[in-house]
Amino acid sequence: MEIDVVRPLELTPTALDRWSALQQADPALDSPFFSPQWARAVDRAQSDGTEASEIKVAVVSDQGREVGFLPVRARTFTAMPAGAPMCDYQGLVAEPGLDITAQDLVRALGVGRFDFTHMLETQPTFARHSHGRTPSWLIDVSQGYAAYEAERKAAGVGALKDLDKKRRKVEREAGPVRFTAFSRSRTDFDQLIAWKRGQFQATGQTDVLATPWTRRLINDLFESRDPDFGGVMFTLHIGERLAAAHFHLRGRHTVHGWQIAHDCDFERYSPGLLLFQDILRWMDETPYSRLDLGAGDYRFKRELSNLQQYVTHGFVGVASPAALLRQTQYALRHAAESMKLGAVSELPGKAMRRLDIRRALR
Q1: Which of 134, 205, 257, 317 has the CB geometry, 3.0–4.6 Å to 113, for a possible disulfide?
Q2: Domain containing 251: what range?
């Protein structure tokens, strides 16, 4: 078994085809974040036409045949997933039963540790390196919207019925509702970004869109015309006004919820959720069968989703100061969380997450 480390943009067409084939062979990897196009898009955004990109791919080969791909951002001492913190799923795209350890990958990358935040729990290579898990929410509409709606009703969830009522209410009070898929409106796109950045400021969250490489990434994905990967913008107008906009990632069969915002003047009508409902109905006539809402404990995700999978956070280390530092951080975090002191117990974890985001954005 050999591991080579190369930039995503330097992968040969044969290697890219092999990566895509491995991804398509595993339904658990049916997310745009596992595609080679994601790693290449991040590589382009972070290099900005230079050779300074830190995005690498650990390519595992067995007797000259590629059997695994792990995209990362590798720095002097540590590595993190390619595209973090914009990357909602992370993992190794590989043949089933690949006999390789996570430490083998870290050594090949030449770093002391690899930090991950949204690793698929089903990844055997990284399972024992997890320090916590959280659900990620999905909507399966492979049988069509009507079947999905009936399933939600049978489960005792009234969210879709409530949205139907809100749609009728907004049309009575504010004007007709208009849905657009694959919108190419630059004006609406810019408004979405402005709304999203305003959300970050209002809630005290780190503005991930203030960093040049993240803006380049989103702009490039908005302009993408690749039939199997890229960004897709959905909009909802009420009368002549833009009420909500979503910019999602798309793969072969999955649309992944990504950047979501709305006009606060229409808050009482839940325009963002009305837009989700329109997207699900629209998917009946498309190759897409799954809308991935990602991780996060939000009521609308719990009510709309009919599937879930778990993602984990943790790290893989080899003997190094970087690994020792991370182990100490997690020890403090677990000690605080075990005290059951409510918000106080959550402070170390929040501090680690915020620090990881800021590291990734630099």
Answers
A1: 317
A2: 142-288
Tokens of residue 288, six digits: 């897409």
Indicate whether 202 belongs to any domain.
yes
As averages over each run of 10 residues, the pLDDT of the chain (362 residues) reads 95 97 95 97 85 88 95 96 96 94 97 97 95 96 97 96 97 97 97 96 94 95 91 97 97 95 96 98 95 95 96 97 96 92 88 93 90
The domain that holds 227 is classified in CATH as 3.40.630
User: Is 0.70 topped by the overall pTM?
Assistant: yes
Q: 45 and 174: one domain?
A: no
Is residue 296 one of the residues assigned to a domain?
no
